[in-house]
């Protein structure tokens, strides 16, 4: 009996180590993806950390259920703020992304907009960001 219990204990320990290694590789992939998305959108990834927030089952394109992981991280727009960001990954593929959207306008453009009357709208215009690295 002790041989069987030792074998089961060894199998459980091996499964835990394997799961931990797989989640570590997935987290590193999420850090790379968060860094790439922040660079693409002109944001600064703060603390270079990404943490697992949730795991859920989601139907894929072919109808199969797959595990989707949600990772949270913090970004800065101008180096003086902290805004939350999230990304969802299925396997090594980015399935969804949530970044803060704050409109930054040049001073002249802001003056020109206030001079012209515009109808009220709930649409926030997006403007391309410059790739200024803040440290």
From TrEMBL:
List the InterPro entries hit by this protein, alphabetically. DUF3301
Q: Which domain of life is it from?
A: Bacteria
Name of the protein in question:
DUF3301 domain-containing protein
Organism of provenance? Rhodanobacter glycinis
């Amino acid at each position: 009996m002790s041989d069987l219990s030792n074998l089961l204990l060894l199998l459980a320990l091996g499964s835990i180590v394997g799961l931990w290694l797989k989640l570590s590789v997935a987290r590193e992939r999420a850090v790379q993806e968060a860094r790439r998305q922040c660079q693409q959108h002109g944001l600064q990834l703060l603390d270079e950390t990404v943490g697992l927030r949730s795991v859920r089952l989601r139907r894929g394109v072919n109808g199969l259920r797959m595990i989707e992981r949600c990772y949270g991280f913090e970004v800065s727009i101008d180096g003086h703020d902290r805004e939350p960001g999230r990304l969802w990954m299925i396997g090594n593929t980015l399935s969804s992304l949530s970044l803060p959207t704050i409109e930054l306008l040049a001073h002249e453009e802001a003056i020109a907009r206030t001079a012209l009357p515009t109808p009220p709208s709930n649409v926030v215009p997006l403007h391309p960001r410059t790739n200024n690295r803040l440290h």
